Amino acid sequence: xxxxxxxxxxxxxxxxxxxxxxxxxxxxxxxxxxxxxxxxxxxxxxxxxxxxxxxxxxxxxxxxxxxxxxxxxxxxxxxxxxxxxxxxxxxxxxxxxxxxxxxxxxxxxxxxxxxxxxxxxxxxxxxxxxxxxxxxxxxxxxxxxxxxxxxxxxxxxxxxxxxxxxxxxxxxxxxxxxxxxxxxxxxxxxxxxxxxxxxxxxxxxxxxxxxxxxxxxxxxxxxxxxxxxxxxxxxxxxxxxxxxxxxxxxxxxxxxxxxxxxxxxxxxxxxxxxxxxxxxxxxxxxxxxxxxxxxxxxxxxxxxxxxxxxxxxxxxxxxxxxxxxxxxxxxxxxxxxxxxxxxxxxxxxxxxxxxxxxxxxxxxxxxxxxxxxxxxxxxxxxxxxxxxxxxxxxxxxxxxxxxxxxxxxxxxxxxxxxxxxxxxxxxxxxxxx
Length: 433
Description:
4-stranded antiparallel β-sheet; Alpha-Beta Plaits; 4 domains; 50% helix; 13 helices; single chain; 6-stranded antiparallel β-sheet; alpha+beta
């Protein structure tokens, strides 16, 4: 009896389709896709989407996208913002950009200050899971930005700042006596602190306050890169362990405990200031989002029902009382009032609104009762467009920043290479004398 053939793997794609105008368009596209070997497609005109099941050993996703284009339609590129975790320097951002841009149909830009990756990608060639897996393989974490994740990220940044503050204080407390020893040596003295005490002071700084550098270096090396954590961990470890060997085996050389501790403490100070700055990068966006109310009154059967703003649908009649903010973009159905639209226009004077007047989410109703027919809801409002543009501006890079990021990607390997060459040169030189 012949062994059964293994089942062919089946993949599925849900693609947005642009350019369809009628049922004939969707029928033609569906027919052309189903002519492909190993493809079973269903096109929904109303949703402007195509659900495609195919066998990857018979046809590729690129061939399917090519057939859609030849039929006269297109699959529009999408934009995705991901919040990144685990980055410590610009070299990390460069590393993440590199792995994302290596994915098919993907163009990514990473801002190390806001810790956000803005990704333009082609549906069908890559997806969110593939991006997250690529970032994880590089040694970092990521998750999509949502309203809930914004609140979590704000809490995380505040907690990170307080943690950095405590760890810097701990590191500085143990480092100050060692710095006093250094200043004493500069003035011509020697031996203010015995070697064993320097060892006791430097050890918690090196391995407790400096733990994050070892962790970051491990993740970077495991992902095939080298960031500033590698440089800090390598440099401070060399100074620390050389001093330990000198002290334990009485080699008679200088001790460099104060150097390793001072480097760790100063870098921790830089991380503290960086954490504080990152906590403020999203303040403008948070202020914009705070202008949208969390709930709204919807007119149902002649009564106003209080609903979560996420439940509002287009064409719902929203009732806005005096003093409340408008929760949606829409058109006034009835009522008359003055609105503060300075959020959008910068105009300080109130703007009068009556029937058929347009209103926008985030603006404030000052004195009258308005009933508004919802047109733009949720993420489809002018306010959310401002938020998206603000985030895009934060994620954009000036040409000089792009140059700095490219340099940072090779900075650490270059420094380590120069150090190795210097060591080899002195070794060969001292061996010939």
